[in-house]
Amino acid sequence: MGKITLPSTILQFWDLGGQRDIRLIWPRYYDDCHAVAYVVDATDRDRLVEGWEVFENVLSAPQILGVPLLLLANKQDVPGSLSVEEIRNHYEEWFQRRQREHAAELGPMSPTSEVPTAERMASLNVQGISAIEGTGVRDAVNWLFIRVQNSRRRDS
Fold first, then answer.
1. Which residues bind GTP (predicted)?
2. Cβ contacts of 42 within 8 Å, gap of 6 or more
3. Which of 14, 81, 91, 125 is the most exposed place for a label (fewest CB within 10 A)?
4. Strand runs (DSSP E) across 42-110, as ranges?
5. pLDDT digits (tens, 9 = 90+) for 53-86
6. Is 76 annotated as a binding residue?
C-alpha cells in the first residue's frame, strides 16, 4: 500500500499486481474503490491485447461504475515506447473490434450490455508516466485527486 498526504486529504493506493493468480483477488477491493488507475507497459506491444482483456474485466465490474478511470502508459522514458496517443488508439481499436465480434456472436436482435462499458470508456483518461524517473506521476495523482473529489459515486 502506498500513501500520499495532501493538504486536505490522504490518498491510499494499492498495487494489486497483474499476475493471473493475483487478479482473482481484485474484486475484493472494488467495493471500497474510489478510482481506478490501470498501468500498461508501453514498451510491451505483444501483451497489450492481454492487458486490454484484463482491463475490460475491471471495467465490467458494477462496483466501479461512476469511479474515475485513469489508464497509465508506463515507461515513457524508454525509446520506442508507445506514446499516449498510440496507447489510446490501440485500446479504442481493440474495444471497437471486440464490440463488433460480440455483436456478431449475439446476432442483430440480441440486446447488448456494452452501454455501461462504453460510458466508462468515454470518461477514461490516458496519461504517460515513467515510474522509474517519476515523470507524470504527480500529474496522475493530481488528476485522480480532483476526479475523486468530484466523483458522482457516493458511499452508502
1. 18, 74-77
2. 73, 74, 75, 76, 78, 81, 82, 83, 86, 87, 128
3. 14
4. 69-74
5. 999 888 888 888 888 899 999 999 999 999 999 9
6. yes
DSSP 92-148: HHHHHHHHHHHHHHH-TTS---HHHHHHHHHT-EEEE--TTT-TTHHHHHHHHHHHH
pTM confidence score: 0.83
Alpha-carbon torsion (77, 54, 25, 112), positive or negative:
positive
* Bridge partner list, 39: 72
Cα–Cα distance, 71 to 39 (Å, whole number): 6
CA atoms within 13 A on the CB side of 33: 24
Does the annotation list 77 as a binding residue?
yes
In the chain, the domains with their CATH numbers are 2-150 (3.40.50.300)
Cell of 86: 498510440
Q: Distance between CA atoms of 26 and 58, rounded to whole angstroms?
A: 8
Gap between the Cα atoms of 140 and 153, Å rounded: 20
Pick from 59, 61, 56: which is nearest to 101 by CA?
Answer: 56
75 is in an annotated binding site: yes
Q: Which three cell numbers stand for residue 30?
A: 472494488
74 marked as part of a ligand binding site? yes
Residue with cell 482483456: 53
